[in-house]
Amino acid sequence: MTLKMNQKLFNTILLLFISAIAISQPARRPEFDSPQVNSDNTVTFKFLAPNANSVKLNTQIENGSVDMVKDESGIWSATIGPVKPDMYPYAFNVDGIQVADPKNTNIFPNEGFQNSIVEITGNNPLVHTIKDVPHGTVSYRYYTSPELGERPVVIYTPPGYETSTDKTYPILYLLHGSSDTEETWTKVGRANIILDNLIAQGKAKPMIIVMPYGRAYPSISKSAGSLRNWDNLQEIKKDFLNYLFPFINENYRVKEDRNSHAIAGFSGGGGTSLFMGLNNPDMFSWVAGFAPGMLPNEFERNNAVAFENPAQTNKNLDLFWIGVGEDDFTYRVVKEYFELLDSKGIKYERFISGGGHTWMNCKLYLSILAEKLFK
What we know:
Elements: H1 3-24, E1 36-37, E2 43-48, E3 55-59, E4 65-67, E5 69-70, E6 75-80, E7 86-94, E8 97-99, E9 107-108, E10 115-120, E11 137-145, E12 149-157, E13 171-175, H2 184-187, H3 191-200, E14 208-212, H4 230-251, E15 261-266, H5 268-278, E16 286-290, H6 299-302, H7 304-308, H8 310-316, E17 319-325, H9 331-344, E18 349-353, H10 359-372
Helix pairs in contact: 3-10
């Protein structure tokens, strides 16, 4: 075989080899970002699904879903707004299946659904906007319960905690909603950022915030419904009193007097915060609920200690505060609870906002409450 024929054969084999490699390589995915917050506060969402028949955007920014449009590269997109500055959950519905945005690392921690989070900052910083101020520390810790095993808890310590080693601090126990997790108050509610900003402005006292996991799993199934479920309340009470509170007191510089202890929570966790706070007056003098989950037939049972002696309850409480939105599905029941408190002569503060059962309102309620605590 001549040299010329050998070269021709080599070239042919090389071409076949290169072609095989090219065929085996997956098609290059189109490049894009999602979400895109535009200068006019409109927001563009995109999702790659070339074989999908339908993709919809589900978000609390809009009432209902928004149909997305597919381009020639298989990218579905939708632009909405201008949007009021805040942080909003959203997800994509792809042929009937809800999925989070794979292009967005800001995930909504929740056991019942998968959502992503988009933040629209606008021109003026909000109370939860990250600013150039001293920042506290968020720690992921575990404590042990013989019945429930290793229990997660997220703890915020304020700026200066690590350096002011002779100083003790008041403490807020902050509880999440029924399908949320111990991370939701920091990743969605921005509790740590809100306190950083308010402390820097001199509007809030430096405090420790304890954000525990609120379901007594595995004793109580994760599908057991609201955290205010009576069985869950009993298990959580035992867990808190016997294991969580001692863990915090042993590992953090906490003021020991009841006037330096507060408890608050959202939704099912709001029901839990009222149950724990109002029935343990020796431990808490600051009690709050954010759209607290309650049922009228549970009022007397869940408030037994507070209702037994309303005059003493009023003396025990430095603040009893409840916030709820006019469009919140808990509003009707919370109004009945207000009427019952009024009839018994129990003093409280109410705050009625716009909007519904959302974490946008939670951030608002926490920012209002934080300015009142421990003063």
